[in-house]
Protein: NAD-dependent epimerase
Organism: Jannaschia pagri
Amino acid sequence: MHILITGAAGMIGQKLTAALVARGHLRGASITGMTLADVVPPTLPSGIAGQALAVDLSNPDAARSLLETRPDVIVHLAAIVSGEAEADTAKGYAVNLQGTIALCDAIAAQQDYRPRMVFTSSIAVFGAPLPPVIGDDVPPKPLTSYGAQKLMCEVLLNDLSRKGVLDAVSLRLPTICIRPGKPNAAASGFYSSILREPLIGERAKLPVSEDTRHWFASPRSAVGFLIHAAEISTESLGLDRALNLPGVDATVGAEIEALERVAGPDAVALIDKVDDPTVGAIVGGWPQAFDPQRALALGFSAETDMDQIIQVHIEDELGGQIPVQDLAEGGRQ
Amino acid sequence: MHILITGAAGMIGQKLTAALVARGHLRGASITGMTLADVVPPTLPSGIAGQALAVDLSNPDAARSLLETRPDVIVHLAAIVSGEAEADTAKGYAVNLQGTIALCDAIAAQQDYRPRMVFTSSIAVFGAPLPPVIGDDVPPKPLTSYGAQKLMCEVLLNDLSRKGVLDAVSLRLPTICIRPGKPNAAASGFYSSILREPLIGERAKLPVSEDTRHWFASPRSAVGFLIHAAEISTESLGLDRALNLPGVDATVGAEIEALERVAGPDAVALIDKVDDPTVGAIVGGWPQAFDPQRALALGFSAETDMDQIIQVHIEDELGGQIPVQDLAEGGRQ
């Protein structure tokens, strides 16, 4: 079992690599090698045969070189993120569309080869007007270049799966929460920030009203989706390989209530309400909730409430401790 | 008013060129030049300024050269047809997807330029399971590479229209009937053949049952759609520039009844029923009928019954005469 991960140096790519190394097997076979690729060189875990490569996927030669090991499973995470794809149209299409096409062409160029391809699509394929709860039959209508590029790749992968070039599963990932690391400029950043910063005793800005609703899964669930998508039988998917995924439907108010239950009122007091109508307008067009029957029937699972999502962050990123409580207790001593 | 037509040497391209020359104006301005492009050199009508070029659109340099005249309107007809796109996956994507992308890139490379782009999509973006009548909210799910490529282009053109790179209208053309010329190997060929051949006293094969239902418009209506799409205001289209179009919802039985009304029983007697389950299976997955409310509200129109579709063929291709009747009358003399 050889696995290729594109975008392996990113947050999800690193967690996926670690999870695969920890479990040691995939699709009933021992993992014998990994090819990790990204624009910056990823780190190959110790004890794993394979290669870590800095490549530009939109270069067809680079894509071909990645496929020379004929990986059994390809997890294609590499992408220009939403904000950059919107600002730099050419770069977004070059990487998010042409990079995927180059990978598919490189697969098609191999003889007698039909790998499982797990593709990270996004709920950004959907745009307003949307029903409050999005069923599996709601048509995707992207409102961003990122969403358009992800949808074009879904259509391509459906067609190439139908033709037997590859065997794809496209995952419309929920917004990942709590994203570890520092606050960033992404419009969605506050959804993580209002939990992540208070948990370590730092202040966070809330730019939208508390009734703003959105769809979340933890980084741990995202990794679980990717591994499950590599393992499932695709027979029941038929010709539509794109899946809406389970997640947690939560308002900002519900996030804050969960933070209070898990970390106490001192944590909540660190959130500053600073209205930002620009951010409000952007996130107002995003999906609020899904009813992902197809994915649930296939055994995909995620957290079921925001308390669990916070708990995953505490376990996976904070060593099981809540710093803000230690800080508060320290302050009271 | 300078107009670029890609695929100008094809049947629709030639008819569109002739219709534009005949009307002399578009979008309220006199037509002062045309650029006609195809893989084989098109014929520039006499008295029209411009150029007729043999180009391979999937070559980015070729696309750039086409845009040097900064046409006000681009009618993008060039495509590998359904059967060939299915058989030759690489060629289909090279022309139908990358050719369109190259055209868009060439547009984006021009400064202060936002042409109207009329793109010929297809009802092949839809695939079974489908409702008997397809409303404007039914999600496209292509079952062929051709349909997938057309859908990917629609998504691209929606995104680039939103960003102001161009101003697109994507037309999901009905099956064109009666297609002039000789019988061909296309699975849809019999829909035209069972009318076209009997009208000139030749035999035609019917490979499916008479209750097979499909969606048609004449070549004259197709040209009308393209010209109307060049002229409409796109404001009311919003972010979804793809339109289902009006047409005639007819069974094969209704086609034959119309043939009898227009050309008599001698014409109908020239149809040989020769079941072909392969053709039946292909066309069984195709759309049967549409309720194209958005296009109707925008003023698109087509024939309303099969008699009219036959009449258009007689007027535009047969000089207003029905040869089979002359033959029959000749025979009775």
Observations:
- The first helix of chain A runs from residue 11 to 23.
